[in-house]
Amino acid sequence: MQTENRVHYTIRGNKHLSGTITVGTSKNGAMGVIAAALANDAPTTLRHVSKIEEMFRIIEVLKSIGVETVWEGNDLTIIPPEEYALHTLDRTAAERTRTIIMFIGALIHHTSSFEIPQAGGCRLGSRTVHPHMLALEELGVSIRTTDNSWHVSHSGVHAADIVLAESSDTATINTLIAAARTPGSTVIRYASPNYQVQDVCFYLQACGVRIDGIGTTTLTVHGKRRINTPVTYELSEDPIIAMFYLACAIVTHSSITIKRAPIRFLERELCVLRTMGFHYTIKRRYKARNKQTELVDIETHPSTLRAPADKIHATPYPGLNGDNLPFFAPIATQATGTTLIHDWMYEKRAIYLTELDKLGASTVLADPHRIFIEGPTPLRAAELMAPPALRPAVILIVAMLAAPGTSTLRNVYPIQRGYEDIVGALSSLGADIEEVVETCQT
After folding, report:
1. Which of 277, 259, 256 is nearest to 336 (CA)?
2. Which of 33, 144, 189, 383 is the most buried (most CB within 10 A)?
3. How far apart are CA 431 and CA 419, in angstroms?
4. Is 50 exceeded by the pLDDT of residue 10?
5. Each residue of 361-385: pLDDT tens digit?
6. C-alpha dihedral over 203, 208, 213, 214, to 10 degrees?
């Protein structure tokens, strides 16, 4: 008989929030830059890294293949080995994170044949890896898929003109990293220009790799045979965390100030919210520590919401971010009228949104991709199990903050994958939330 600790959140809702909160750095950006750091033979120090479960899993993977990692506060230094020990890779940790697939772009430059486990992460239905495979094949890489692994091999990589099969963030990053150490000019068309892709581009530039077209859908990477440049890199802020705080303020009718919000990756979200009647003030504009990303401070104001005239759906950047789409579900419960949310990216995520019904929402699931939400509805406290996906899990916290009474959200590991000390952050704004650790026998 073994014991394990399970973490739950207890939330006493229906309280106004107040004060100031600062947006932390991006989980997705950090994961992309860590994958890119494996293409660098010199150490990389990442500043202001969030200590989250996803980060801990990927560090376990790094250590298992010979990479040394050193924490100093929230700064993380990655020291590559002279030779990667891929035969000792920690499969258990690797299978719990989708980041592992982005390692391929770097590892092909350290060995001509290797195997890695298939990616894990959120359970959101079918998430194809074909865009990765097709792009890397253009560079001369062969990827063979088995039930639980990818077998990667090549007899030499070469520059290419690549059209991505999908404007995927991770496929773009994988291809970028692979191209960075491939001599010649590789063109990546239909690339994602999203925030995490830009973070990787800025890091690779700091490594001495020239990249044209950053922020557009066509990237030209002028690759180097070897990267051996010690780099200290400032990660950019996370637009998804900023959207989380926006949603919390909206459903609790609160005025808070959200500092260091990456505005270029929130503009479509704020545009939709304005059409729904949300009021806010941009207090100042400035550059991030990386001297690239544009930040603002946003002051929210209590607002009376209405359902938008059109459906809410995500599109590739500069459209509404797919990871921000679920936050519109608890917001829609407080808007007069019927809101249609169309989540075309994932087969299961719209289904997870029906969990809001247990908190008093009124939803109708049209199909695995579309959900109608009627509002405004008074939310009520409940005890729920967190879904096995980060964003559908965290929106339950948003709704619970607006629900009078005491709610419990159990098994919150999916949230801990992407949020550092979410309890402390919300408590600093006046939320009544606590973390409960329960020891169970398994």
Report:
1. 277
2. 33
3. 16
4. yes
5. 999 999 999 999 999 999 999 999 9
6. 10
Structure tokens at 205: 């530039």
Of 264, 244, 223, nearest to 329 by C-alpha is 244
Q: Are 125 and 348 in contact (CB under 8 A)?
A: yes
User: Domain limits of the chain?
Assistant: 3-24+237-441, 27-234
Question: Read out DSSP for 151-162?
Answer: EEEES-----EE
Phi-psi region of 26 (alpha: psi -120 to 50; beta: other; left: phi over 0): beta
CB within 8 A of 340, min separation 6: which ones? 311, 312, 370, 371, 372, 373
Task: State how far the alpha carbon of 76 is from the alpha carbons of 48, 54, 205, 405, in Å.
Answer: 8, 14, 19, 40
Q: Per the confidence metrics, is the pTM higher than 0.90?
A: yes
For residue 1, is pLDDT > 60? no
- Give which of 226, 140, 143 is closest to 180, Cα–Cα: 226
* Fold matches, 3-24+237-441 and 27-234: yes
Greatest CA separation found in the chain?
63
CATH number of 27-234: 3.65.10.10
| β-bridge partners, 152 | 114, 143
pLDDT of residue 442 exceeding 90, the answer is: no
Does the pLDDT at position 147 exceed 90? no
